[in-house]
Amino acid sequence: MEKISYVIPVYDEEDNLAPLYEQINSVCEKIGTDYEIIFVDDFSRDKSLEIIRKMAEKDSHVKYIAFAKNCGQSAALYAGFQHATGDVIITMDADLQNDPADIPEMLKLYGDYDMVTGWRWNRQDTLSKKLASKFGNRIRNAVIKEDIHDTGCSLKVMRASMLKRVKMYKGLHRFLPAMMRMEGAKVVEMKVNHRARHAGVSKYTNLKRGYEALYDLICVRWMQKRHLKISIRENNVGS
């Protein structure tokens, strides 16, 4: 592991960015590996972009991409992935519900695995959101033959070379473990901390999330069944 790229989608999180930046920096000092923090502003309506610009002026580790219109979480992640220069990419939400303090323990599993995905063991969300997530994960695992308890957890550690081969479409950030496995990744889940929102409001509703996830689930199952598994016997075209 030579360099870590933190990729963080941002949409109207002006009150969460400063404490998140401080917490990530604190963890980076403990890890001791070179790093960059890439904020991808998804056309925020508040002062998020202004705050990110000021961070970047003061700290060369801070990079940012600002969308010209709201494109959604999958697009923000994909843009961050393609511009990341680290060999390891770590994703998390900007709302402070993920805890950067979990990252050192997740990195202990990285290497034996190409992807370490967080499992929010004690979710600090509403009961309806927790029940909807549990139901959705069961349906998802049954259809695409997965064993992930909490694919919605944004805290993930991933091998960049594999992740950059994943073609993202709207909504597919919820299926990253399955998409990484299609690229040959070994995936493991780790229980992580989950905190109540520090400020701001959630951008999702159960109805919207459920409708989109069902549509995406059908597409992912189709991709799994049609995924090319090429095994070359011999060649003379070079590596």
Automatic annotation (TrEMBL):
Biological processes per GO annotation: lipopolysaccharide biosynthetic process
GO CC aspect terms: plasma membrane
Transcription regulation listed as a keyword: no
GO molecular function, one term: undecaprenyl-phosphate 4-deoxy-4-formamido-L-arabinose transferase activity
One Pfam family of this chain: Glycos_transf_2
Protein keywords: Cell membrane, Glycosyltransferase, Lipopolysaccharide biosynthesis, Membrane, Transferase, Transmembrane, Transmembrane helix
Signal peptide start and end residues: none
Name this protein carries in UniProt: Dolichol-phosphate mannosyltransferase
Species classification: Bacteria, Pseudomonadati, Deferribacterota, Deferribacteres, Deferribacterales
